[in-house]
Amino acid sequence: MKFKIVYDKPGRIRFRCGGGVFDKTLESAVHKLALTNSCVISAEVHCENGGILVYYKKGHREEVIKTVSQINPKELAPIENGGGVRKIDTDFKSDICRLIVKRFVSKAILPVSIGNLIVIAKGLKYICRAVNTLGEGRLNVDVLDGASVAACLAQKNYTTAGTIMFMLSVSALLEDYTKAKTKAALTDSLAVKTDKVWLVTDKTDVLIPMKDLKSGDIIRIRTGSVIPVDGEVTEGEAYVNEASMTGEPLNVMKSQGATVFAGTVVEEGSIAVRVRELSGNTKIQKIIELIDNSENLKASVQSRAENLADSIVPFSFLGFGLTLLLTRNVTKAVSILMVDYSCAIKLSTPISVISAIREAADHDITVKGGKYLEEFALADSVVFDKTGTLTNAEPVLERVISFGDYTEDETLKIAACLEEHFPHSVARAIVKGASDKGIDHIEEHAEVQYIVAHGIATELHNERAVVGSRHFVSEDEGVTITEEQQTEIDEKSGACSVVYLAIGGKLAGALCISDPPRAEAKEAVARLKKAGIKNIIMLTGDSLKAAEITAEKLGITEYRAQVLPEDKHSYVEKLKADGRRVIMVGDGINDAPALAAANVSVAMSDASDVARETADITLRSSNLSELAVLRTLSERLMERINRNYRFIVGFNSALLISGLAGIITPSMSAFLHNASTMAICAKSMTTLIDKSKKEK
Question: What is the pTM of this model?
Answer without folding.
Answer: 0.60
